[in-house]
Design goal:
The complex is a heterotrimer of chains A (264), B (301) and C (317). With 301 residues, chain B is mostly helical. Chain B has helices at 5-8, 22-32, 34-52, 87-123, 125-140, 143-154, 159-169, 172-186, 189-196, 201-209, 214-237, 248-257, 260-263, 266-294. In chain B, helix 4 (87-123) packs across helix 11, helix 5 (125-140) packs antiparallel against helix 8 and helix 12 (248-257) packs antiparallel against helix 14. The model of chain B is unreliable at 1-20 (pLDDT under 50). Chain C is built from eleven helices and twelve strands. In chain C, helix 6 packs parallel to helix 7 (181-196) and helix 7 (181-196) runs parallel beside helix 8. The chains are: A alpha/beta (264), B mainly alpha (301), C alpha/beta (317). Chains in contact: A-B, A-C, B-C.
């Protein structure tokens, strides 16, 4: 489905682009239908840039990104429109993803304006309510409210519901739970797990190894824009082959084991 | 990371509480802010005076209607000029043109500045660098000197034309500020979301970015308004005002020209000077007050 | 005893009435104790940390006392508190890293800070450099601008600064949450080291990350809706929590290796109550699977086992 081939991205900095910064270097990965792929890396590893490129929000400097064999980068106008019917994203900070000036349900209206102009209002309302039920939200709780009146978990689920309005096939989830409380994090993760069972592919971008392992089938570890290790999640975590992965795993705080205690 | 600024505000809004609209809240604070209320009263008072007063007379502002150089009296509230023109009538008409210059000049500068700023900030790259260059060129031009030359060579006949020239040269700082804000808002995730919803760039600017800056844009307009008024008064005073109009600056110009100061005709130049000071001063005070209204951190509890 | 808090109440003033962010909290921190304070957003944990050092202008001290080394702190009086800040109570605020003035070198910042406290930079410098070395920072960071340091380095600079006068109590408010895992670990271990060396005698580590605070804290205190839910040695909180809220919270944490396909974890349904008009009785009642009629009455915060305090009717029996 989604395929990245030797993708690199360089940013130009300074006056007239005199300096270059390589954010992503020769990254290749695939996400298939019904598959969750975790993209794990620390800040500055380029993981968010990869997500943005997959969504067509940024263009790679080198390499190819294809979706069902069709190049993603450089899509404009109608083609980009059609791509976003199938591929959508949810971002890290729910409070920044909602325009604070407007009511939160405006994100649904935007989807209607952009894709479903011909659907009558009553039908659309039904569709929205169905999508909200799909992410286990009560429409009355979240519709007609301002973002600051809702919790981070509710907002994040609304964004997933928004993506589901489009019958998407791939979801790029960029750190979608790092701003949430522990008590709601797991609900959002479980929701992704259920959607995966219906055939949705998910590119799950995160810095948290524990969250990454919980739902993903395959894991890609990034460092400074390069892939250091990739493979089935089970293998990467139980038998990491790269030293960096081992260091990362050693630094993760575990609930029942202290850092200096040996692994049981 | 859970305790972001929004969440950490421990008024963690419960779902059941009534919606207090943002606008209503702003209005609530605006009406309680002495600076804003005072400034609005001054400005509205002068505006009404300028709009209404000339309706009650059949004479034009420059007609010779009374005795020459008469001090303020019941017939001529602000006295008359050396030529017997009614100072009050000139004053009221002058306020009109002052507001016209402010609104048109400020509006035009705001429009150009915002357009340039939004486009440069949103597009970035080459477009940004070109627009930035243009902005910087206009910015370093000594606006007053250019305006003097323009007025002297082209000749300015109407208040509207004067406003046009002022507007054309006072937008650069607006463009710079709007560009910077657009830059930071553009990287916010709701802009990405709008793009994923198939919104076109112009719509993103108009419907997502601009509403987030509305308070700022409003305050910018107020400052531009005040700036235009001052600039127009300066030009009028040095004798480069519109030839076919009455304005506060022109009144002061003729007062000085005909030696009102030496002759002790204080009623000729004090009212226009005071009105300009009052309008510009009130606008700046309003700006400070609005800053307190829009910025919750400055609100006095 | 570095810290004793008795029935502390701190409200936030808002247009629509007081928000009872901290509603009757009592506990003590023993000599050399690191206490983790955890809970969901809006549970009052950050308010607690701030209240001990500096009330911001929206916060109102409604009742209760804070005692440090036997001296009662005038927490409602911003001026009188100046005498205690930095020397007996100190805080590393949540956004300390971005609070550093970007146009000044670190050395200048430190000099200004010491000057404001009536200390000489020249005389303190050797000790400062020794402590920077201890957290793995070279003397040259004093010549750097804040922008030139990474998040973890800045956090360590702030840690050294805020403990320079060996305060009795240090409040660390979400100091690790913006850091990557490896930096997180380094900063957390530095906190422990400072305690071991006696630079601070007691510490409140406010965080939402239970797994992290479990690594370093002696005691963990769980807060819910402005009150204490449970307080116990960290092993007891993690392995045998007694309050239903703590149990659910711990149950919701995925560990490395936990898989959705193997064992599904569950979150806590519902959300914390609004604190303008908090519900009567136990505030967790609406979300609690064990709630009974008695919970309409507020459960006392009592010691049910050695050093294990809990506020739940079901836990004591």
């Amino acid at each position: 489905m989604l395929r990245l081939d030797q993708v690199s991205k360089t940013f130009r900095l300074g006056a007239f682009g005199s300096r270059e910064l390589t954010a992503v270097k020769d990254v290749s990965l695939t996400v298939g239908p019904g598959e969750v792929v975790s993209l794990i890396g620390e800040s500055g590893s380029g993981k968010t840039t990869i997500g943005r490129m997959a969504l067509g929000l940024a263009t790679p400097t080198k390499g190819r990104i294809t979706f069902d064999g069709v190049p993603v980068s450089g899509l404009r106008g109608r083609a980009s429109h059609g791509y976003h019917r199938q591929v959508q994203g949810v971002f890290q900070d729910p409070f920044s993803t909602f325009n604070p000036v407007f009511k939160a349900d405006r994100v649904f209206t935007l989807v209607r304006d952009g894709f479903f102009g011909s659907v009558p209002a009553a039908r659309w309302r039904q569709k929205v309510e169905a999508a909200l039920h799909g992410v286990r939200l009560e429409p009355a709780d979240v519709l007609d409210k301002y973002p600051h009146q809702l919790s981070g978990g509710q907002l994040q689920r609304m964004l997933i519901a928004r993506a589901l309005l489009l019958d998407i096939r791939l979801l790029v989830a960029d750190e979608i739970i790092s701003m949430l409380d522990a008590s709601t994090r797991i609900d959002v993760l479980n929701l992704l797990g259920e959607l995966k069972a219906t055939g949705l592919g998910v590119l799950f971008v995160t810095h948290d190894l524990a969250l990454g392992t919980y739902i993903s089938d395959r894991t890609v570890i990034l460092r400074a824009g390069e892939v250091v290790e990739a493979g089935p999640t089970e293998t990467v975590f139980t038998n990491p082959s790269h030293e960096y992965t081992r260091d990362l795993l050693a630094a993760v705080p575990h609930l029942h084991r202290r850092w200096d205690e040996p692994v049981k | 990371m859970t305790d972001t600024e929004h969440v950490a505000a421990p008024g963690v809004p419960a779902i059941a509480e009534p919606t207090v609209g943002r606008r209503r809240e702003t209005l609530h604070f605006a009406l309680r802010n002495k600076k804003v209320v005072g400034a609005v009263v001054v400005i509205l008072g002068l505006l009404v005076l300028g709009l209404v007063a000339p309706l009650f007379t059949d004479h034009g502002p420059n007609e010779y209607v009374g005795p020459p150089a008469a001090p303020p009296s019941a017939d001529y509230w602000f006295g008359t000029t050396t030529f017997g023109q009614d100072v009050f009538l000139q004053f009221a008409n002058g306020i009109r043109s002052t507001f016209v210059v402010g609104a048109l000049g400020g509006g035009l500068a705001g429009l150009i500045g915002m357009t340039v700023g939004f486009v440069a900030g949103y597009r970035g790259g080459l477009v940004d660098e070109l627009l930035n260059m243009l902005t910087n060129i206009v910015l370093v031009l000594p606006a007053l000197a250019v305006l003097i030359i323009l007025h002297a060579y082209v000749g300015v006949t109407s208040v509207a034309m004067q406003a046009l020239f002022i507007g054309l040269f006072s937008w650069p700082w607006v463009a710079r500020a709007v560009r910077a804000q657009t830059f930071s808002l553009r990287s916010r995730e709701f802009v990405d979301l709008a793009r994923l919803s198939g919104m076109r760039p112009l719509a993103v600017i108009r419907r997502e970015i601009a509403p987030n800056m509305s308070s700022y844009l409003f305050m910018t307009f107020i400052l531009l308004f005040g700036g235009s008024v001052l600039m127009a008064a300066t030009l009028d005073f040095i004798g480069l005002g519109p030839t076919d109009a009455t304005s506060l600056g022109l009144m002061m110009n003729s007062a000085v020209h005909w030696s009102a100061l030496h002759l002790g005709l204080w009623w000729w130049f004090v009212p226009p000077g005071a009105a300009i000071t009052a309008i510009v001063g009130a606008l700046y005070v309003m700006n400070v007050g609005l800053d307190e209204v829009f910025n919750p951190k400055l609100r006095e509890m | 005893m570095p810290l004793q808090v008795d029935d502390l109440k701190v409200y936030y003033r808002t247009l629509r009435g007081d928000v009872r962010a901290l509603d009757g909290v009592s506990f003590t921190v023993a000599d050399g104790e690191i206490m983790g304070v955890v809970g969901e957003s809006g549970c009052g944990k950050s308010t607690l940390g701030k209240a001990l050092v500096r009330l911001d202008n929206r916060m109102k001290h409604v009742g209760g006392t804070v005692t440090v080394d036997g001296q009662t702190l005038p927490i409602a009086d911003d001026r009188a508190m100046n005498r205690f800040r930095f020397t007996s109570v100190s805080i590393i605020p949540q956004y300390a890293m971005s609070a550093l003035n970007p146009t000044r070198r670190i050395g200048r910042l430190v000099a200004d800070l010491l000057d404001a406290r009536g200390m000489s930079y020249a005389a303190t410098r050797p000790e400062l450099i020794r402590r920077l070395a201890l957290v793995g920072l070279p003397e040259t960071v004093l010549d750097n601008y804040p922008m030139e340091l990474s998040g973890g380095m800045k956090q360590r600079v702030v840690l050294v600064l805020s403990t320079l006068r060996d305060p009795a109590l240090l409040v660390a408010d979400e100091v690790t949450s913006a850091l990557d895992v490896s930096n997180q670990r380094a900063v957390a271990q530095t906190l422990v080291e400072f305690r071991d060396r006696g630079y601070v005698r007691g510490m409140l580590v406010v965080t939402h990350d239970i797994s992290l605070v479990y690594q370093i804290a002696d005691t963990i205190m769980v807060m819910y809706a402005g009150r204490l839910a449970e307080k116990a040695p960290s092993d007891a909180v993690v392995t045998e929590p007694l309050h239903p809220y703590t149990q659910l919270l711990i149950g919701a944490l995925p560990e490395v290796g936990a898989r959705f396909s193997e064992r599904r974890l569950t979150g806590i349904p519902g959300r914390p109550p609004g604190l303008r008009n908090p519900p009567q009785g136990c505030r967790f009642r609406a979300r609690c699977p064990l709630a009974v009629d008695k919970c309409a009455e507020q459960p006392p915060f009592v010691e049910v086992a050695e050093n294990h305090h809990v506020a739940c009717w079901k836990a004591g029996s």
